[in-house]
TrEMBL record:
UniProt cross-references to InterPro entries, sorted A to Z: IrrE_HExxH, Rad_response_metalloprotease
Name recorded for this polypeptide: ImmA/IrrE family metallo-endopeptidase
Domain IrrE N-terminal-like residue range list: 62-184
Gene3D superfamilies in UniProt: 1.10.10.2910
């Protein structure tokens, strides 16, 4: 399945000139894991795995050269889940143009701190939507329901939801904590009020 069948146009538009490349990345059958490395590559962003203490610093070197050098440095000792989220979040900063935004404001620390926090929230939201798109979350949940011999029409209790989260998170290559957050954000198991 092509990524353009997974992500909506509003989200894909955030990639600007790279939208077409991202849209045409293929997700293999029976695979629910978004390939953030392939997306970074399509956006001309280099990934460097290093033993740094704090991973995820995106560098946009446009001030120092004629070429926009975009690098995401990832702590190679972090878990695969954290590495994936780091790449997705830093891609969010790059795609959303946060570096340029910071440079336009004055040097007052209170403004920079507020802008930094706002940008961090936006980049994390972008990352969550990137690695756990709504359509794919629903698809992996349906697959997990079948895998666990549950029924889509049954009442799901806490233990059932926990089992679904564990199986689904593993299928998507994300942590159970991240997947749990995403299904709560999407309101997947919220009873509708008539």
């Amino acid at each position: 399945m092509l990524y353009k069948k997974i992500f909506n146009d509003e989200f894909l538009n955030k990639f600007g000139d790279y939208k077409e490349k991202i849209s045409n990345i293929i997700l293999d059958d029976n695979c629910y894991e978004i390939d953030v490395e392939k997306i970074a590559n399509s956006c001309e962003v280099s990934l460097k795995y290093d033993g740094i203490e704090s991973s995820g610093f995106g560098i946009n070197n446009e001030v120092h050269s004629d070429y926009d050098q975009k690098i995401i440095i990832v702590n190679k000792f972090n878990s695969d889940y954290i590495q994936k989220f780091t790449i997705a979040s830093e891609l969010g900063h790059i795609v959303l143009g946060h570096k340029k935004t910071l440079d336009r404001f004055c040097d007052k620390p209170e403004y920079k701190d507020t802008i930094y926090k706002m940008n961090k929230i936006l980049a994390n939201k972008f990352a969550i939507e990137l690695i756990m798109p709504k359509k794919l979350v629903k698809e992996v949940l349906n697959n997990s329901i079948n895998q666990l011999n549950y029924s889509i029409s049954q009442n799901f209790y806490d233990d059932d939801i926990h089992s679904l989260v564990v199986v689904s998170a593993k299928s998507m290559g994300v942590s159970t904590q991240a997947f749990n957050y995403r299904i709560k954000d999407l309101g997947v198991f919220v009873d509708s009020i008539n």
